[in-house]
């Protein structure tokens, strides 16, 4: 989960809240969903308590 990504750059310039973890188990079909929201300004985002 990455927040505060400047519009003229890439995700590496944002604030990483939750790091990426590989799917478990590592076999079978997996679906990935990427959701992008526009922020009107910087926000304080807290990581979820569970995954």
From TrEMBL:
Protein name: Flowering locus T-like
InterPro entries: PEBP-like_sf, PEBP_euk
Organism for this UniProt entry: Chenopodium ficifolium
Cross-referenced PANTHER family: PHOSPHATIDYLETHANOLAMINE-BINDING PROTEIN, PROTEIN FLOWERING LOCUS T-RELATED
SUPFAM superfamilies: PEBP-like
Gene: FTL1
């Amino acid at each position: 989960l990455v927040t505060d990504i400047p519009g003229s750059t890439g995700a590496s310039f944002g604030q990483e809240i939750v790091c990426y973890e590989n799917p478990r188990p590592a076999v079978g079909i997996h679906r990935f969903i990427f959701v992008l929201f526009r922020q009107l300004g910087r926000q304080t985002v807290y990581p979820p308590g569970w995954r």
